[in-house]
Design brief:
Elements (H helix, E strand, L loop, with lengths): L2 H12 L9 H17 L6 H10 L11 H12 L6 H13 L11 H12 L3 H14 L13 H7 L11 H25 L4
Bound molecules: adenosine-5'-diphosphate and nickel (II) ion.
Amino acid sequence: MNIIEKTKEYVKNKLINEKTGHDWQHTLRVLENAKKIAIKEKEDIDFTVVQLGALFHDVADHKFGYSDVDRKNIVESFLLNTSLTKEQIEHVVYIANTTSFTKGIPLKTLESKIVQDADRLDALGAIGIARTFTFGGAFQREIYNPEEMNDTISHFYTKLLKLKNLMNTEEGRIEAEKRDKFMKDFLKQFYSEISTTT
Ligand code: ADP
Ligand code: NI
């Protein structure tokens, strides 16, 4: 088994109990998105690092109480004694520790920018909508409540609708535009259904 296949097995097992939209299928989609973006890039890219970064990006997430050091330890101990160089391992750790939107750190390498865009694409469009309501449900949020800002619909405004302007790559931007439009159509329909005439 090559390192990508081995990592897939490992990460799949790590995410087995994940039910908030950051599950194994999310990771697989991010991997596929990242590969699609990477092949469109003209610059030299370390394709192995892109794939491993995508696979590790939601392992030991900070949202669930893990730290950067926890993630570093997990990634390093798994990739040690493989054919990867020390620099490649550090690069994967860097991606795992910086991809998150919440942190808002400007990224330094093209590989990390690709993984971030790949992750952001999965927060958009039909799948993005599905994940958002899954997350809202898992954290006991209301679907919609105009009297407070803690409902799931608010997340579209605090995060999702901002993402298309934050994309790093041209390929990511093109796909984000389409998915953003779909979300806006969804919101339009949503409001038309809940609006009252009285
Ligand atoms: P990051 O990718 O930066 O770690 P998150 O993990 O917080 O960002 O977000 C990933 C996905 O989880 C979002 O795209 C969204 O679907 C869902 N999510 C995160 N926070 C919320 C929230 N407050 N309400 C609803 N969904 C959320
Ligand atoms: Ni993710």
